[in-house]
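pinned: reference chain
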Amino acid sequence: MPVGGEDYRIVHPEAAEALIDEADFERDERLPYWADLWPSAIALAGRLAAEDLRGVRAIELGCGVGLPSVVALKRGAEVLATDHYRAALDFAAYNARINTAKRLPTALLDWHAHDLRGFLGRFELVFAADVLYERRHAEALARLVPRLLEPGGAALVADPGREGCAAFLAVMRRSGFRVESERREVWLSGRRSVGVYVHRISR
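pinned: its structure tokens
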């Protein structure tokens, strides 16, 4: 995967649908979206590759197989990769090791958890790619992001234009945040492109 003039080798499951767990779905409608490398993750990685992240304390929400976290780590950030799936964290950590020879700290994170003491106010940068595919996630993310950011911090959220993202951005604006949006074209196999918006959210 070429990103920012460098090639990254990203290992991911061969078939995400083979990982569907009926018990997980019945409990909270959870599906293994983490197992695919989505265009939004590629767009976000490209944005991060253009940033000087040396020493920046960052967290990725819903890291999946970890491409944005790996790029941020390579750009010098101190990254914590989080997901709701332990298997996703294993893939992200492995991809960091083979691309950067660095250890990528990881943590399970439930956006609806009440005890977030280990995460609150610690990060200069929060980033996420295509995590608003369900509208119910918008409210949870809008509550979480301000709690994670330290004063003066910012968030980068990449999304292909889903309804949940529009709802999330509306809540953030009402909460006093500024939103700046940039459209990026992600080229897929077969010479097909997908438009992805990278939204920067700051006070």
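why pinned: The longest strand covers residues 149-159. Residues 69 and 81 are 6 Å apart (CA to CA).
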